[in-house]
Amino acid sequence: SQDLTQPPSVSVSPGQTATITCSGDALPKQYAYWYQQKPGQAPVLVIYNDSKRPSGIPERFSGSSSGTTVTLTISGVQAEDEADYYCQSADTSESYVFGAGTRVTVL
Amino acid sequence: EVQLVQSGAEVKKPGESLRISCKTSGYRFTDYWIAWVRQMPGKGLEWMGIIYPGDSDTRYNPSFQGQVTISVDKSINTAYLQWSSLKASDTAIYYCARRKLEAYRYFDLWGRGTLVTVSS
User: Between B59, B107, B108, which is nearest A95 by CB?
Assistant: First the structure.
């Protein structure tokens, strides 16, 4: 089984950079994906394949990968970015896992 | 418009059965897997299982195997999640989400969720 570890919370001032990490032993072999979930809403994909951004996602969202850790970076954070963020990965047997989520608070 | 429309909120008693649905539209049903994801109150996302509508190939998270059943009806482009005997601990929001066949394993579109409340 694969576990993904995220920090429970990150606080950031408007205009600053938020960095959210996700660690897992399988990440060097599997892509990671990131979802944003605002209160009362369904999750939305913001990063796929470690660092690619779906159409419609602002450029301030970016992703990177290094060894067993992937990182979601939100540059120039805006108030509307306050949300929970989840990383996710999967293996070739169609077994999926989510991290526990990181709450981003915009101060 | 491409969408996943989930059935409405349910209030059930422990021991009752339930089936919730996820009706898809705007794309070829057999081009995507459909997954179910649980979110308990105030908690994170948990992958429950996934089904390929083309042949009903189904994979379950071991934590949910035997607790729920995932199925599809190809004739109406709809996926289902069902319980035979609900418990209070099944109280949660349940999301369906799609994952493109023969592609990377992420969920590019989600339903709005179905709130299931189990209480005596």
Answer: B59
